Amino acid sequence: MKIRMYNVGYGDCFCLRDRKSNLLVDFGTSNRLIGGRPRREVFDEIISDLSTIEDKDLLLTHFHLDHLSGLLYMMRSKNPQEFGCIYLPDLFSQNEMADTLSLLLLTDLLKDFYLPSKQVSLYALVEALCRRPQKVGLLRRGTVFEGKYQALWPDVEQISGRIGGMVREIQKRYAESWYRLTDYAENLRRVVYSMTEEGRGEAEEWGPSRAAQLEREFLELRQSIGFEQMLHFVEEQKFPLRELKNEISVVFQNAEDGEWNLLFTGDASASCMKRITGNYDGKFPLYQHYWCIKVPHHGTHSHYYDFSSYSPENLLISNGVYYSNSRKKEKACRVSASYSGLFYIPGATMYCSDSACCEGGRNGCTCKEKDIITPHCYRDI
Predict the structure, then answer these.
(1) Are strands 251-254 and 149-153 parallel, antiparallel or unpaired?
(2) Is-above-0.90 flag for pTM?
(3) Alpha-carbon torsion (224, 225, 231, 233), positive or negative
(4) Directed axis angle between helix 175-193 and helix 156-173, to 10°?
(5) If you placed Cys at 336, which of 98, 159, 212, 301 could pair as Cys (CB 3.0 to 4.6 Å)?
(6) Number of separate helices (H) and strands (E) present in the chain
(7) What value does the mean pLDDT of the chain take?
(8) Where are the domains of the chain?
(9) Nearest C-alpha neighbor of 69 from the set 121, 126, 113
(10) Contact 279, 285 (CB under 8 A)
């Protein structure tokens, strides 16, 4: 078993390799420059490295561009890589999931972008799948995939309960605009579901013409006065929509306890990790020991979780300098000091993309056992 951890700055990209299968987990970044290099150059190097693997699948933990932008770049290239299957969080298997998808679309639309294929990440993924259809697998708590991994999150029922209040508030004030948005989200849902094993029987048109139609519908929706008013209301109410994107993030571990236990956490929040580690439904406990744990959300303090009780041999933190006009936001995106120095987990090796973005390493790295990837493209664990 080997994990190849790519240096994508403030983003995620890992490849889980063994003799039987290869799984790419996320591929994206928020940075335009990674170690002084244009991200396109870094993406091309990673794609070239991945081209040496004949059989591979991909797992997209959620729909933030720092996990998705490299995949979109790859799918739009002249010679895109083919995956046996693309795994996504299960937000597509049931009609009522259009409500969750609608809220995710609103998250992107609050950025005030009018060209969906440029920045609206959920739309951009569906548009790319329309142009280059792929087999899709949907993951929810309990799903076993690749014959050896098990999803611990998302829990569809828990997410549905979480969004109910927000949906009711929006529906009550902007019923017409909300129903137009959910109709559009339902179209996206059907496209993705028709690419799954379970949804094969549902006739859905794919291809460039379908992608163009979805874009036209999006622009008509986005430019309507009622929709603008709904967006302003959502922004004023400060609904936790960005946090919702992290709440649906796939978390997974090995399906069976063993020597090479992995725990990948996507961008799961601390409250979400607390539910998972507490085995809230009594069905899927975590193991006592892990070979590798990928810490949540680039190691930031807002998503910090103490994994010391699981005696991890390796902790993986994919982070890089986050550039913003806000110093407060830049600081919030740095690696938490709680992962280093006095809080360092004895016996664990820290694998970090870059040490220049760590709150615990302002005067040099304080971790006893560490491996910093930059300026290299990747490190094998």
Answers:
(1) antiparallel
(2) yes
(3) negative
(4) 150
(5) 301
(6) 12, 17
(7) 89
(8) 91-135+150-252
(9) 121
(10) yes
